[in-house]
Amino acid sequence: MRKIIVITFMSMDGVMQAPGAPEEDRSNGFRWGGWMTPYSDDFTNGIMNALMSQSFDLLLGRRTYEIFAAYWPFIQDHSIADKFNSIHKYAVSGKPMDLSWENSTLITGDVVEGLRQLKQQDGPDLLVHGSSKLVQTLLANGLVDTLTVWTLPLTIGEGKRLFREGTQPVDWKLVDVKSSPKGVIIASYEPGGEIKPGSFVGDNPSEAELARRKRVAEGG
Description:
This protein has 220 residues and is α/β, with parallel strands linked by helices.
């Protein structure tokens, strides 16, 4: 069974849109494309190179697939280009699309069922980059096996966010964390089961607390 591994670059306020370049994704008038590039250094490059040395196929949403397909096939003598161009790519889209990038397969129609079937197949793990809409689908349906979040030390205030309405309540187990000299926190999580709420209040709330709860319950 394959695992789905999501790699996301995110600002401190949760924005994941267009980290790599200004023209990557200007939808909804996004002005801050390329916000990740000043934080690249030998430390982060080393982590990314180690990731690229592993065995995986790519699982991408339509927009990210189109961004990659317009760039990586035309790059030569580059280790990531060599990797991406040679492995299999799975593009997820609700409509037909151009799959001219070599070794590409379209997942469409009932995409959730298609993703479940893909996970059940033999083969390398499936690596998700970008693909904000696809990530929402994966999170909403419990299909993420590992979530690695690169949190960069900036706030953007607008743009597509990692966690949106529809994300399921899940306890995530931290399995690895690193920080770069420029303040990038790289944390990997695996699903840890249901949330287990508790309380610091104790078993004997005051009359004032009981009155406060009543006001809140009545919308006050």
